[in-house]
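User: Could you go from structure to sequence for me? I need the amino acid at each position, not a summary. Structure tokens:
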């Protein structure tokens, strides 16, 4: 028995855009604050979106402003220890004016859900996830192999007498 896609849900080949869209382009206009509010208040899909798409979007946004994983991990500990109020009392949640405004917006959106230990712990875990994603993103970016001409010392491509070169 073969599964078939109903005609109403099939996407014609002409409907697929001809250009590829990068992950960064997809998250530029993503409203992280709305996802935070919904994800902290509602279980199920909104919570999965919070720890998936919204955390990835937040990672891209924070990384673009130079925020590293450590400041967000520290903020997560502050939220876990003192709640939303402690995070809101910080004069600068992370260094930098724009980055501070971005992260303060996240804290305000989370705090708007009301002081509740469960939501504060969830927000703290979300901040830790964003910090983890930034760290992973930077590690991959920093260790990615160069794209382009053959690297020196690669016997298969450098003309060292081994590989496809004749002796």
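Assistant: Here is the amino acid at each position, in order:
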């Amino acid at each position: 028995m073969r599964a078939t896609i109903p005609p109403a849900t099939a996407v014609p080949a002409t409907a697929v855009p001809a250009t590829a869209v990068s992950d960064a382009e997809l998250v530029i206009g993503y409203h992280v604050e709305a996802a935070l509010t919904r994800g902290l208040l509602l279980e199920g899909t909104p919570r999965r979106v919070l720890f998936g798409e919204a955390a990835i979007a937040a990672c891209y946004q924070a990384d673009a402003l130079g925020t590293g994983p450590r400041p967000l991990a520290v903020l997560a500990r502050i939220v876990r220890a003192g709640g939303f109020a402690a995070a809101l009392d910080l004069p600068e949640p992370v260094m930098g004016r724009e980055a501070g405004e971005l992260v303060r917006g996240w804290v305000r959106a989370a705090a708007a859900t009301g002081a509740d230990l469960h939501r504060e712990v969830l927000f703290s875990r979300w901040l830790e996830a964003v910090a983890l994603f930034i760290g992973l993103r930077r590690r991959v970016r920093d260790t990615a192999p160069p794209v382009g001409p053959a690297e020196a010392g690669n016997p298969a491509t450098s003309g060292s007498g081994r590989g496809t070169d004749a002796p």
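One structural detail worth keeping in mind: Residues 27-141 form one domain.
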